Amino acid sequence: MSLAMFTLEDDHLVPAEIARSLWKHDQMHGVAVSGALARALEHRLTELGRDDLRPARYTVDLFQPAKMAPCTVETEVVREGRRICLIDAVLLQDGERVARASCIFLLATESPKGEVWTPGDHPQPPPEDVAPPSDEPRVPHFSSESPWSQSFPDHQNAGRKQTWQAGLPVVEGEVGTPFQSVASIADGTSMVVNWGTEGVKFINTDITLALARRPVSREIGLSATDRVEHDGIAVGTVEVFDRAGPLGTAMVTALANASRPIDFGDMEFEDDGSRKPARD
Questions:
Q1: How many domains does the chain have?
Q2: N or C end of the chain: which has fewer CB within 10 A?
Q3: 70-87 residues labelled b (16+ CB within 10 A) or e (exposed)
Q4: Predicted structure pTM score
């Protein structure tokens, strides 16, 4: 069974069942929206022949719910220089803009001499006997007040959360790239920082991902580093990492959505994205 989030029909991306949001039945989740935008940005860079540049800052604005309906993505090169390229993208449905993204691609050079402060401790992936290395999509692993596991009810608590997962392919028949994976998984920042004792009661309106290097694979981890909330507006940040170490950071801004919470207390998932009854 394909776990791709879209099929390609002419120039339209048609969302698959696995792209459906838990917030609303006819809504796509941000993982799919971000993946579609990242794919378009990466393809535009390739069309420019700029394989010397790498993604450094990726920002998404999720200003309107994307429906479970065909969509297209348009891109624009804002500026291309020797060491920088800025490309914008917009996702459209029925000619209406529902999300947009921007990515700065930079030229890697040698690091300058000298010492600069950096944290001494960084998050680590789950032990390999818990999550063997694999780019194959599977149920995400989480840690919190409970140790690493794929059981969602175990992590519905007030503990500081981490997740480890492999990115879903964006389009059926295409091998997803590490950038597409980290860009789509970055939407999970909201879940990592906003999941508490009564489920997820905040929905993110944006994603900002900053990368110092490319991921080594499609396996990506997020570890909560900070969260501030006041009057129903929350800002949360995570450290992004892979099996080679830290990659950068991600941040989301979220609005309270307490009238339609996502309660993971009785949810379990299969590797094909389907739900199963929670264990007793």
A1: 1
A2: C
A3: bbbbebeeeeeeeeebbb
A4: 0.95
